[in-house]
């Protein structure tokens, strides 16, 4: 056990939005929790060492390990890491797609001379103006899709977690003491995602309070003054 642990903050938090979650927000991942009280002092999560250890145990490439959450809801005592293992075809497909886009960008204008460019510019000028809005929307959709990984692109997380649990040498990973290894579909929510429903309910409560106060004030102002005979006799 390392002295001075209570004086040190937990390692820096890290989250990524590279996956396409299900409608209910679930996504299958392997979740590893480290006990920082039983681990050496660290200022930063040893990502490379973590990848190498997991990759060696599962006999995959370190590039196949996609880290999704690091201590996103962690405490000073425990560090939670959630990750998934990409299938080979998924990683290769991503590389091929990026290479194709690069080739198109590099070679797109090599076969045109200046006159061709001018003619194309004149012919397409009006069309470009008309298609700006729809083109921008399509480009945004394409760029978003290009960074989203579907669950089908990963090795079954439940089987991976079961294999890792059975490996006795994974009691420590990247010199950090492992507290638990488990499969879960409850991926940690990204930080700074406010729940607007709470704000809406609070706004409604404020409006109702204001309206009730106004109605009570109007009723108190407009009601007829009445006097008791007993009070007049006094």
UniProtKB/TrEMBL annotation:
Keyword check for Membrane:
yes
Instruction: Give the region (Disordered) as residue ranges.
Output: 102-148
Q: Where are the transmembrane segments?
A: 199-222
UniProt lists compositionally biased (Acidic residues) regions at 102-117, 129-144
Keywords, alphabetical: Membrane, Transmembrane, Transmembrane helix
Bias kind Basic and acidic residues: ranges: 118-128
In its UniProt entry, what is this protein called?
Uncharacterized protein
Question: Taxonomically, what lineage is the organism?
Answer: Eukaryota, Metazoa, Ecdysozoa, Nematoda, Chromadorea
């Amino acid at each position: 056990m390392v002295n001075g642990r209570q004086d040190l903050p937990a390692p820096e938090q890290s989250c990524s939005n590279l996956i396409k979650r299900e409608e209910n927000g679930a996504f299958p991942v392997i979740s590893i929790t480290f006990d920082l009280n039983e681990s050496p002092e660290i200022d930063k999560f040893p990502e490379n060492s973590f990848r190498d250890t997991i990759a060696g145990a599962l006999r995959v490439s370190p590039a196949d390990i996609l880290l999704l959450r690091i201590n996103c809801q962690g405490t000073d005592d425990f560090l939670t890491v959630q990750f998934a293992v990409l299938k080979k075809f998924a990683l290769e497909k991503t590389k091929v797609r990026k290479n194709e886009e690069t080739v198109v960008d590099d070679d797109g204008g090599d076969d045109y001379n200046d006159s061709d460019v001018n003619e194309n510019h004149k012919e397409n000028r009006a069309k470009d103006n008309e298609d700006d809005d729809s083109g921008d929307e399509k480009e945004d959709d394409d760029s978003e899709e290009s960074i989203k990984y579907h669950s089908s692109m990963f090795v079954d997380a439940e089987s991976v977690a079961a294999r890792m649990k059975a490996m006795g040498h994974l009691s420590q990973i990247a010199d950090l003491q492992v507290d638990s290894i488990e499969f879960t579909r409850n991926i940690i929510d990204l930080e700074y995602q406010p729940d607007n429903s709470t704000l809406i309910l609070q706004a409604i409560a404020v409006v109702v309070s204001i309206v009730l106060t106004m109605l009570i004030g109007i009723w108190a102002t407009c009601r007829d003054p009445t006097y008791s005979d007993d009070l007049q006799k006094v």
